[in-house]
Structures are given as structure tokens and as C-alpha cells.
Fold DUF1648 domain-containing protein.
Amino acid sequence: MKLPKIIFGIAVSLLLVYIIILSVQFSSVQEIIPIHYSGDGADGFGSKNFLWLEVGLNMLLLCLLALPIFFPEKMFGKNGDYLESSAEKAIKNRQVFLSVLSVVVTVIFCGLSLKEII
């Protein structure tokens, strides 16, 4: 059961690195940044404080994804009606999926605005 926690730790580490980069570079970021893109490019603009909103949303999503990863007995029932051969295998598969999802979510949130910071 260590693999999901290690993968989730990667997501948390990525977010922490992003927070450090944002904190260091925040004063040099332009006051108005693009916050919405369409096929023609940027079409919505906002304050650079929206970068911290992304951090907050990412933290919230990571907290919600952490619950079934760290407390599977409370999140998944052991009633035995899983497609996998055992309940333990089913729970581990779900934990791995959620931990990979946490990395993907963090990469998306951090990657979207990294261009504005660096």
C-alpha cells in the first residue's frame, strides 16, 4: 500500500515546488495576466492574484483525493462486489488511480500558469 502514497507524494512535491517558484517570482509577474484562452488566444485577463487561487484550488483537490488514499477503510466498503478478485486488490487499484489523478491535476494546474511566472 506504499505505491499510492509515494505517487501522491510526487503531486504534493510538485505543488510545493510550484509554490516556492511562485513566491520567489511573484513580484516580477505582470499585474494583469491572461486567465482564459480560446482558439484565438488569450481572451480573458485578470489580476496576478489569480495565481494563488490556482494554488488554493489545487490544494483543495489534493486534500479531497488524499482521503481515499490515506483512509481507504472509511471510503471504500468491503462488501465484496468488486470486479477484481479481492477487496484489497480493488481498493489498491482505486488508490493508485486516485494518486495518479492527483499528479495529473497538479501538473495541469501548475503547468497552465507556469509560463506567466517564468
Residues 87-117 form the longest helix (31 residues). The chain has four helices and two strands.
